[in-house]
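ARCHIVE CARD
SHELF: 3
SLOT: left
DATA:
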Amino acid sequence: MQVREAMSNEVLVVGPEHTLRQAARMMSARGVGSAVVIDPDSEGIGIMTERDVLNAIGAGLDCDVERTGAHLTWDVVYAVPDWTLEEAAVAMARGGFRHLVVLDGREVAGVISVRDIMRVWAAGRMVATG
């Protein structure tokens, strides 16, 4: 199975000037564990995860003041839609993260998470044993 079949196509996008609280509220409302951060003044694409928010809170930072641009990963590992789920899982394990931004060319096509991969693999096992 390929990444395109398991990824979330609807991507939450926030800007680097959103506060951590704003980003956390949007992530919570959408039921996602990450947001893609696109800076219109930069060519890069970053990712902010629930872990980034948790680390900021744990450090005693004010979530109404701190901006996403200061608490995200700019050095993103990208997947492509035609990767296998195994390739995505290996990239996540190797990098120690749970989300991959999926690029189709230079455009964000989706996000795939460990949860997405587990859901597909579990469904496949249930069908195989069922």
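SLOT: right
DATA:
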Amino acid sequence: MELNIETLQALARIMSEEKLTSLVLDQGNLKIEIKREIGSMQPSEITYQEPRMAAMEPLPHHTQPVAADAIDITDTAHWKEIKSPMVGVFYQSSQPDKPAYVTKGQSFSEGDTLCIIEAMKLMNEITAETPGTIMEVCVGNGQVVEFGQVLYRIVED
């Protein structure tokens, strides 16, 4: 996640909409903590930790990428982007203990669910408009995404 004014505004908007008094976002090498006083609409404290190199840990078995030996990953000219249609929280699966809907190297069909974006306590399924193959997953599970942020890069079949 890139720390910029739009990201901070999106986090503040979520806090306001959900009536939260604090919000902690920890994405491994980035940690943002925002607190506000009860009744105040303005953040009273924002803490930002400098990015740090985290030890690479293997993904849980159900989120391991599918081998993509037959895919030419060097030819990015034909890649398409699937972008977020809303501000919310990105989830790769319907439940934490369930496998991801799609992973890098995996093929999908038109109408397949690719992910869920939670916005204002509603779970919105993001479905594929065309068949294709996932070339890159651009956001992490549980990450706050902005409108128009790239979620996946794909090659259409």
